[in-house]
Structure formats: C-alpha cells, structure tokens
Design a protein that fits this description.
Low-confidence stretches: none
Number of helices: 1
Number of domains: 1
Helix content: under 10%
Mean pLDDT: 94
Strand order of the largest sheet: 2-1-5-3-4
Largest sheet: 5 strands, mixed
CATH superfamily: Beta-grasp domain
Number of strands: 5
Radius of gyration: 12 Å
Structural class: mainly beta
C-alpha cells in the first residue's frame, strides 16, 4: 500500500527522499510505528502524528492513500 507522508519543519531532515513531502510503499496492515522505523526516523525525537487529520499512536494501522503528517509538538502557555 502507498501512503503520503509529510515531515514538517526541521523533521524534514529525516526524509529518505530529502523532500518534506513524499510517498512511501508499505506492506498491508503496517502501523505508524513501522512506517517511522522503515524511514529510519529516530525514536528519541519528539513528534506528533496525524493520519487524515486525526491524532495517531505508533500502534495505529495505516491504509492505502492515508495522509500522514509528522510534526513537533507545540509548547507554551
């Protein structure tokens, strides 16, 4: 299955293509965690993940054509 990924801001440095936005092929049933592992995204980097506009966990399964956004969490008060 193919998903669309966007690594926002400085997280784009972890893109396997060198681009902020790219497509990635995964086996059916792959999870967000497996996706991040396959693109060699560091585990210790703070991140939030949205799939089709909804917050996701590492265990969230992906589906064909999903839009995956990875960005740094906002802080402040």
């Amino acid at each position: 299955m193919r998903v669309d990924i966007q690594l926002l801001g400085y997280l784009a440095q972890y893109s396997p293509t060198g681009e902020e936005k790219f497509k990635f092929e995964l086996p059916p049933g792959a999870t967000v965690g497996q996706l991040l592992e396959k693109i060699h995204f560091p585990e210790d980097v703070e991140k939030m993940v949205l799939i089709n506009g909804h917050q996701a966990k590492l265990s969230t399964p992906l589906a064909e054509g999903d839009d995956v956004f990875v960005f740094t969490p906002a802080a402040g008060g």
